[in-house]
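Support request from a user on the community tier.

User writes: "When I paste my structure tokens into the form, the page sometimes reloads and wipes my input. The last time it worked, I copied everything first. Here is what I submitted, just in case something in the input itself triggers the reload:"
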């Protein structure tokens, strides 16, 4: 009977030994060091290397890996911010906005908060399109830029925020003037007068104000443009609403999170 009890144990030991030999022979472990044991610091270095040369698609993967595997590491804060930056540079403005807001909520006293507030406004600013389309991007951008100026009046982003406000305001004024022209084109002169007065009250210092006043004067005098509007009105062409080139759009990104 003792032999019958020992036999299964011997068989088990043989099987375990065989499995160990097979594992050693065929090497079942991963050959990719990133997949298994790469620490958070190395992931952050690799992510920043890709980010700094514009490889945002791969950079964001390293930052997300940190957040998934090392959410409480010192590198996690950097990963949160840079994941938002990657989304921004990839044109995913709604996603970037959400990530910036999460960062602000998680780290309200972080030194990068002025930058985060600026980037939140830029996510809306980037939605500014043609003057005959939605104006909510410009409105929200102005609101958030003003919040930044109020909270951090001496931040490195103050001058650029003011310029972006001016640019978005010009856009809104041009939109109102466009709508007024539409009313004139359709002979709705009273509506055009209301729109022009509103525009001049809301945006009195914009570049298009003189054209608006000239048209308002004609309408109030009962002398709307009689010639074809396509010749009377300047051709609608959109300026570059940005006061800055893409290069310095977030040139400050190099300084927003020094660690």
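"...and here is what came back when it finally went through:"
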């Amino acid at each position: 009977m003792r032999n019958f009890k020992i036999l299964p144990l011997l068989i088990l030991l043989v099987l375990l030994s065989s499995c160990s030999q097979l594992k050693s022979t065929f090497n079942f472990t991963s050959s990719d060091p990133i997949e298994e044991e790469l620490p958070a610091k190395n992931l952050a270095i690799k992510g920043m290397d890709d980010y700094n040369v514009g490889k945002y698609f791969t950079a964001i993967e390293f930052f997300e890996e940190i957040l998934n595997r090392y959410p409480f590491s010192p590198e996690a804060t950097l990963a949160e911010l840079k994941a938002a930056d990657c989304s921004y540079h990839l044109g995913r403005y709604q996603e970037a906005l959400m990530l910036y807001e999460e960062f602000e909520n998680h780290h309200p006293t972080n030194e990068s908060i002025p930058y985060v507030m600026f980037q939140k406004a830029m996510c809306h600013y980037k939605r500014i399109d043609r003057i005959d389309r939605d104006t909510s991007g410009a409105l929200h951008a102005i609101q958030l830029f003003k919040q930044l100026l109020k909270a951090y009046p001496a931040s490195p982003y103050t001058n650029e925020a003011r310029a972006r406000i001016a640019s978005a305001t010009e856009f809104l004024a041009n939109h109102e003037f466009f709508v007024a022209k539409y009313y004139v084109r359709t002979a709705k002169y009273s509506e055009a007068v209301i729109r022009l007065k509103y525009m001049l009250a809301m945006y009195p210092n914009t570049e298009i104000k003189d054209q608006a006043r000239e048209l308002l004067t004609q309408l109030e005098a009962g002398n709307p443009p009689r010639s074809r509007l396509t010749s009377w009105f300047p051709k609608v062409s959109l300026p570059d609403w940005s006061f800055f080139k893409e290069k310095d759009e977030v040139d400050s990104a190099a300084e927003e999170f020094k660690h």
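Agent notes: The reload is a front-end session timeout and is unrelated to the input. The domain at 36-96 is CATH 1.20.58 (Methane Monooxygenase Hydroxylase; Chain G, domain 1). The first helix runs from residue 2 to 26. Escalated to web team.
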